[in-house]
Amino acid sequence: MPIAYDLTGKVAIVTGASRGIGQSIAEHLAQAGAKVVLASRKQEALDKVAAAIQSSGGEALAIAAHSGTKETLTALVEKTIDHWGQVDILVNNAATNPHFGPALEAEDSLWQKTIEVNIMGNIWLCQRVVPHMREQGAGSIINIASIAGISPGEMQGIYSMTKAAIISLTQTLAMELGQDRIRVNAIAPGLIQTRFARVLWENETIMQQVEARTPLGRIGQPDEIASLALWLASDFASFATGQTYVVDGGLTLGSL
Predict the structure, then answer these.
(1) Known catalytic residue: 159?
(2) Domains plus CATH for the chain?
(3) Are 171 and 188 contacting, i.e. CB atoms less than 8 angstroms apart?
(4) Rounded to an integer, what distance in angstroms lies between the CA atom of residue 256 and that of residue 251?
(5) Which bin fits 23, alpha (ψ -120 to 50), beta or left (φ > 0)?
(6) To pair with 22 at 20 to 30 A between CA atoms, which of 42, 82, 191, 223?
(7) Is the pTM of the predicted complex or chain greater than 0.90?
(8) What is the pLDDT of residues 14-71, one digit of tens each?
(9) Choosing from 5, 124, 159, 245, which is the catalytic residue?
């Protein structure tokens, strides 16, 4: 018998929601009845996703916000509260990876940009959202990490370090916020077919290597991450906190 997820009455903020994993998560949450706030840098792209959700009977609000800028993230939460009065679910999905190469060869600006978006953006949003969750008496925070945070990706050292930090942040916040009935979990995807990861899956050599090392013999799709996020957002995951859920087709089995 299929599990019926019901998020009616819940409000979710999803960053990086204009495409890929973030878009898919937002759509899954909306289909389950949540009111979804879509955040990303470009308003036009967000408006298209919001319109698609609304045409399917869901409720969505598109708010442009840069995940590396504290002020815009503060405004994002304030606008969400003004519009819907609460925040029950936070999905920290937005990320950047501007440097593909040896970590020590990257300019300071690339280090700073990656840290601001991938780490500080998550922290800033949690700082703004947690007081509201505390007041409501519950909440679910879902951080999108990466298997690169468990075993560093070749030529992706800076990105890998930031994702390792997100796994640690998830554990720390779960420990600190458990008494407030705020659950904090992370998802660590493997290679997923998104625009963000296109430099990898469009490379035939890399694809052949990944598929050969992956027990399921393929890369993943955004919906396969979104379905886990939906579970973590729901009451079905009410006893789950502080965990990092690897979804990689078995790829990391070879490095454990």
Answers:
(1) yes
(2) 11-248 (3.40.50.720)
(3) no
(4) 10
(5) alpha
(6) 82
(7) yes
(8) 999 999 999 999 999 999 999 999 999 999 999 999 999 999 999 999 999 999 999 9
(9) 159
